[in-house]
Design brief:
- The chain has 13 helices and no strands.
- The chain is mostly helical.
- Helix 2 runs antiparallel to helix 8, helix 3 crosses helix 8 and helix 5 packs across helix 7.
- It is globular and about 45 Å long.
């Protein structure tokens, strides 16, 4: 792999890993979690308007596009923020997001009738086993709700990957713009009912929090995803995506640097099992 592509791959992993501590910093500034998810999606939509140009897809893509947009634009990001909001520690949330891969494989079996090989079943089992080991970490005693939301985030991320396979013929800008508008509108309505006056909450967001939200929209949701598709022009998904499973390592390092979180022995053991299992799940065809 050329050095240029290697740097791009490292950037993608750092960007995805940084999304969690960056979101936690914004939440610590009293930004409501559902509103923050909505604003992130709103920024994504606005930035993609010049590329999307309000073109509508063929009717056959409506159902999978709406399903993907709701799963990814609404449920993934809202459960990500809720998991961080209800957790005092971030590393287990980052690792829990890796369950998206086994969830995606299971969803493919149920929704697309795909066969799961014996080796994949073993790796799916070991990935969940790693999470169970982490579950017994004493530090998680007051963070079970956050881990539950992280599991829901992973579930809907896995479902979104299944729906995305039916959208290969659509432009990336159209898919992401649809995700942005569905996420923004749906979540802003939910925020109004659950978190209170939206206008007042937005007015209270300071410059630092707007910067953090913009980082999530521009660097994570747009740049990292677009660069991933750029690499797909030169390499197969099977060659690139296993490295994507390593982004928790960068995220956990950042949580240590920013929040001073020191992983416990149980977390390290469970984390090694989860990341290794997910890495090889990407490798098996």
């Amino acid at each position: 792999m050329p050095l240029k592509h290697l740097f791009i791959l490292i950037f993608i992993m750092i960007a995805h890993g940084s999304a969690f501590p960056v979101a936690k910093l914004a939440l610590n500034n009293s930004v409501p979690p559902i509103l923050m998810a909505s604003l992130r999606m709103g920024l994504v939509f606005l930035l993609l308007i010049p590329f999307w140009k309000f073109k509508l897809p063929n009717k056959k893509f409506f159902k999978p596009l709406i399903s993907f947009s709701i799963s990814m634009g609404v449920l993934v990001y809202v459960f990500m923020n809720l998991s961080l909001f209800h957790s005092s520690i971030i590393a287990p949330i980052i690792l829990g997001s890796q369950l998206a891969i086994p969830f995606g494989i299971l969803a493919s079996a149920f929704l697309l009738n795909e066969n799961i090989s014996k080796n994949k079943w073993i790796l799916i089992f070991t990935s969940f086993l790693g999470i169970v080991i982490i579950f017994f970490d004493p530090k998680l005693t007051e963070n079970y709700l956050g881990l539950f939301f992280a599991s829901l985030m992973a579930l809907f991320f896995g479902l979104a990957q299944v729906y995305s396979r039916q959208l290969k013929e659509l432009p990336i800008s159209m898919i992401n713009a649809s995700t942005g508008i569905f996420g923004f509108v749906t979540l802003i309505i939910i925020s109004a009912f659950i978190e209170g006056n939206v206008q007042e909450n937005i007015e209270q967001i300071n410059f630092e929090s707007w910067t953090l939200i913009s980082y999530q929209a521009v660097i994570v949701s747009l740049c990292a995803h677009l660069l991933m598709f750029y690499l797909y022009k030169f390499y197969t998904v099977g060659k690139i995506f296993p490295f994507y499973s390593l982004f928790p390592i960068f995220g956990i390092i950042l949580t240590y640097l920013v929040f001073g979180e020191v992983p416990t022995i149980l977390f390290i053991l469970g984390g090694i099992i989860v990341i290794t299992s997910v890495f090889f799940l990407h490798k098996i065809k």
